[in-house]
Amino acid sequence: MSHTRTDTARVRLQRSELAVPGSRPELFEKAAAGPADYVFLDLEDAVAPPDKERARDNVVAGLLGIEWHGRGKTVSVRINGIDTHYMYRDLIDVVERAGHRIDTILVPKVGVPADVYLVDALLTQIEHAVRIPRRIGIEALIETALGMSNVEAIAASSRRLEAMHFGVADYAASVRARTTSIGGLTPDYPGDQWHYGISRMVVACRAAGLRAIDGPFGDFTDADGYAASARRAAALGCEGKWAIHPSQIDAANAIFTPSDAEVGRARRILDAIVEAEAHGRGAAQLDGKMIDAASARMAQNIVTLAESLGNRGASAAVLG
Ligand code: COA
Ligand code: MG
Q1: Who contacts 42 (Cβ-Cβ below 8 Å, separation ≥6)?
Q2: Please, are residues 138 and 119 in contact by the beta-carbon 8 Å criterion?
Q3: CB of 183 sitting under 6 A from ligand 1
Q4: Which ligand is nearest to the CA of 42?
């Protein structure tokens, strides 16, 4: 393996991420009390233009007045895109007033590494100016053709960057995919039309040590469709998915948690590899299937994740 080292971003539990419009403060307490690992308070597309300024005040009040961390939540704020005139005040007003209560800033429609640099530079100044003790992380939404075409460079753009998210609806609009659904499959395509985008983003994330998160599934009455979409994302390497409605959270938590059967099999693989090595063999068979050191690496991922989840404590949102 290459000796090029990539530090892994801070590890956080992000199986489910509930989107909460900043213009609906009555939802904040419900979000904090619910089962999502992560919550993002939205200033962008779930907030209509006339409500943008009031949403900022709501978000500040919600960050300051609601107990998030004590209930195991990681809290993120989605600002408006850097191509809007809302973005600078989103960042300055919200982070100056409540930055010590924010874990990450979610930046939509990231197109080039300099978009992340802008947010990083502003955060650095605000953190110094108002003495925020913890470094605020950045998460990038990959949801434009430009962002996807630069996804590897964006992944390496900042030491603050922790995760990238696949924003399926804006991505569909940007590449002009023939759909108006937010996520899910179309009968016109023989497979999963989002496979390429998600997979490309996941590879860029993992190469740079970032978490990979799948975005929304809009039809919250279609529980089976949501679950299938989450399972496809997990199969490609995502470690969590958005919930745009509370009814989607439990499914995400369950699907992105290894099952007892998976963990049991992973432990048996690890045991079998140790035994094979003791007999001078690298490859062996388990239940009629070949296993080797790569099997052990896959199995170790599952066991490590399961053990981290098993040890969830007061600061549940941060693992390890
Ligand atoms: N966060 C917290 N609570 C939520 C919620 C959310 N995102 N969405 C709904 N709820 C609550 C409702 O307040 C309601 O609570 P109650 O039982 O105490 O009355 C309950 O969950 C059921 O909600 P429901 O009536 O089915 O939904 P709604 O009509 O109020 O809202 C949506 C539906 C889709 C508009 C709403 O879920 C929403 O705004 N989701 C997030 C959208 C978003 O952020 N989009 C941008 C990212 S893609
Ligand atoms: Mg979007």
Answers
A1: 19, 20, 21, 22, 55, 78
A2: yes
A3: no
A4: 1
* Interatomic CA distance for residues 187 and 122, integer angstroms: 44
List, as one string, the DSSP characters of 76-106: EEEPPPTTSSSHHHHHHHHHHHHGGG-SEEE
Q: Is residue 159 part of a domain?
A: yes
pLDDT tens digits for range 105-131: 999 999 999 999 999 999 999 999 999
Beta-bridge partners for 164:
140, 212
Q: At a CB cut-off of 8 Å and minimum separation 6, what does 115 contact?
A: 82, 107, 140, 154
Mark whether 203 and 78 lie in a shared domain: yes
Residue nearest to atom 8 of ligand 1 (CA): 245
Domain count, the chain: 2
Q: Which residue has the tokens 């052990």?
A: 296
Q: Which two tokens stand for residue 87?
A: 């973005």
Task: List the end-to-end C-alpha distance of the chain, in Å, as a whole number.
Answer: 25
What is the mean pLDDT of the segment spanning 23-34? 98
Q: Report the CATH number that the domain containing residue 184 is assigned in CATH.
A: 3.20.20.60
Whether this model's pTM surpasses 0.90: yes
**Encoded tokens for 185:** 């499959």
CA of 227 to the centre of ligand 1 (A): 18
Helix axes 87-98, 52-65, angle to 10 degrees: 20
Q: Are residues 176 and 50 in the same domain?
A: yes
Residue 315 to residue 74: CA distance in whole angstroms = 9
- Nearest Cα to Cα of residue 217 among 231, 206, 203: 231
> Phi and psi for 139 in degrees, rounded to 5?
-125, 140
Cβ(215)–Cβ(141) below 8 Å: yes
User: In this structure, which residue's CA is closest to atom 28 in ligand 1?
Assistant: 245
Whether residues 140 and 269 share a domain: the answer is no
CA dist 200 and 211 (Å) reads 13
3-state secondary structure (DSSP) of residue 227: helix
Q: In terms of residue numbers, what domain contains 268?
A: 260-319
Residue-wise pLDDT tens digits, 62-87: 999 999 999 999 999 999 999 999 99
